[in-house]
Amino acid sequence: MVNTLNCIKSIILLFALFSCNDNRNITINQVNKKTNNQETNIIDKADVYKVDNTWFIPKKSFEFNDSARIQGDTLTLITCANFIYYPFGNIQEESFLKSPLLKELTATQKVAHVDENQFKYHLLQKDESKLLFLFKEQKPDEYWGSYIERGIINNSSIMLSNGIRTGISIKEFYSKFFKQVNQDLHSRVSIIILEPCISGNPRHVYNFTDQKLKQIKFECIDSGCGKILDY
Fold this sequence. Notes:
Low-confidence stretches: 8-44
Mean pLDDT: 81
Largest sheet: 9 strands, mixed
Number of domains: 2
Structural class: alpha+beta
Number of strands: 12
Shape: globular
Number of helices: 4
Oligomer: single chain
Distance between the termini: 105 Å
Helix content: 25-40%
């Protein structure tokens, strides 16, 4: 009788152990399922923008214009943020050319002649880096017009107003404008173009090599933008 009771107890104990393991497996599966659902929910949020089988979440300060495209290794985004027009801050006149962000560059005043008229502009240069500045009659807080006509930056000592400079990682670059990006955008993209939502202003072109920013370009693609000024 005792042996029979012990045998029954053993069977009950084994059944309980298997039941615990089954419950544990179910719990793990439920957690995994919840985790997968959470990841899906992140991607399905209203502030996520999907493009070409990938996604990103822009910051409000980026003022993303709901327009993006990927062609090859190039990501193009349209923005209305102040940064696209004033990448060195609110520079309004010639005296601002000595501001901390521009102190690495030497400024030279030049004159352009157009239809019997002439106007002043400035060449800012350091080594192979050069920028063309044109100050318009309206102040930046009155008119959405960039003071940069075109330019190129290769020196890491020249920094934009939001901390962007050559040498930073593409991950750090994304962090300036996005809350979150899909991981594949780190390796998939080597050129990032920021286009202004108002025409007649230069776009920003950021070139990356091995996920490091190598060059910054400001270039005009609209007719009449930056065409009449020479370095």
